[in-house]
Amino acid sequence: MTLSLTLLQARRIALEAQGLARERPTRSPGTREVGRTLAQLQLLQIDSVNVLSRSHYLPLFARLGPYDRSILDRFSSRAPRRLVEYWAHEASLILPELYPYLVATQSRKWAGASSLPTDTRQELSRRILELLGTSRPLTAAQVQDRIGHTEVKTYDQWGWNWSSVKRVLEDLFQHGLISSAGRTAQFERRYALTKQVLPNRSLAGLEVPAEDAYLHLTERAARALGVGTVRCIADYFRIPIKAATAAIHTLTQRGTLVPVSIDSWAQPAYRYAGSVLPRAATGRALLSPFDSAVFERRRLEALFDFHYRLEIYTPAEKRKYGYYVLPFLLRDSMVARVDLKADRAQNQLLVRAAHGEPSAPADTVVELAAELVLMAGWLELDEVVVEPRGDLHQPLAAHLAEEYGWELNRGTARLSRRLISPGNGVPRLGAKTSAITS
Rounded distance, CA 56 to CA 292, Å? Predict the structure, then answer.
């Protein structure tokens, strides 16, 4: 039997599953809250782009507010680790118990050493494993220096000039023989033997049949999403559609997933049986382009009528909204998009552009202003600057000037550090219901 869901019900189920349906905790979040959120999400995608903050820090801020980022650093770089790095949706920090299931299913052939001569690959593999077995964690450059291997680098399809040592390291990483003990300040992996990284050494040698791994990952993805189509669920851990379809069939027979139809969705969908439908969604968040809530762009558009694409690789003159644009979630709708940059040299959070959606409610500007102030304080930036781009910039700047005493100058707005420090009355969701419109 297929149950019916309205689009609003599907949204709320999805937001609850992702930890975005409710207001953030009133007290400062600690280790327990971070751990609970990670258990919901299963993974945090990693990306080298640092225009605002490293991407893996942002999903926790969206759900918990101003948390201590060192908690996440400890989770992923100190034993016993509560997060380890591996391929998932993309390169991600994952729960350690997922590691053997992902090793059994993930394949990134472009990142490996298959193009190298067999004898070169085998010899480098032997020397690298021997070195890492007796050393502290090392970066690729340090490994290459220690084993004394030099050569002319070649470029791969992404334009990365990886050496043979780096390619073999990535090959060993993909096959689960080595792992990352953390990242350097320059975002380089520090490689170590997998058994030295995982909190439970038995996970390093655990071989899981692919069929069992796909089933396990499909269930975890469905739980994290709450509701979705086969494509949505498969995308979470980048599972092949055929494997996800078979796994969903099994999970449906077991009662773990429930077939549902969603208003305006052409494709059949599945709801995780343990998911919760809240009476209302009351959260507020700026979402990273790499947040798990927006992984699958077609799902995002189907759920929220919100067409969203990352424009980092689009030439500047062709960008519609900006370089690093974050969707702004207010209650159960995506109501705006904001192009943000942390100018660390000037200690400023730059709002490069702010665009509202046609259906944005009257309090969008009020709530967006509060969220920007909250983020600036968390990033320890001394000023926030709203630049004159997008239809929301003028009412946003005007509201910030009125509410917080900002200086207005030629269409920009600036907020001093003393006003964005913790404890200075940043309004919570719903604190004001009026808004200034352009």
Answer: 10
